Amino acid sequence: MIMGEETLNKIRRVLLYTAFLLAAFFLSYFVAYPLGYSPLGYEVVEKQENTVVVQSLNTWGFEEKRITYQPPEEEEWRQAALVDRIEGQAMEYHLFFTAIMVAIFWVGMDVMKGKPLGKVLVLSCFYVFFSGLSLIQHLGDINEILEGSFY
């Protein structure tokens, strides 16, 4: 049985999409983990028994200010929660960067197919929306712990 040209084009397209998704996944992994790029994020600078020194990062991922966090008496669990959240933010950024790259890819593919750019941009926002929302919530949890309003 010989495959038709249409079937081969579909297989090529699926392979192209799969290759791009893998490339986006690995590139965003490299940006989030080894490079540690986390704009508006935090990093643990020093951890002691009763205090944690946290470095906040600006929009470009550069150091902004140091925050020394000491949990209230009888609530030492907050320190562990803060460190866990900061260590988990790389995963959130990995998902966010992957979603952005996939959205850019789909915008390019749809525009090349002749679809209107406005419609494509609106639909591509949904790729990024949920991962962005999760990232914002995660960073908000870290900020709430630092401000002392996390329960």
Automatic annotation (TrEMBL):
Q: Which residues cross the membrane?
A: 14-32, 91-108, 120-140
Which key words tag this protein in UniProt? Membrane, Transmembrane, Transmembrane helix
Q: Give the domain of life.
A: Bacteria
Organism of derivation: Halobacillus litoralis
Q: Does the keyword Transmembrane helix apply?
A: yes
Protein's name according to its UniProt entry: Uncharacterized protein
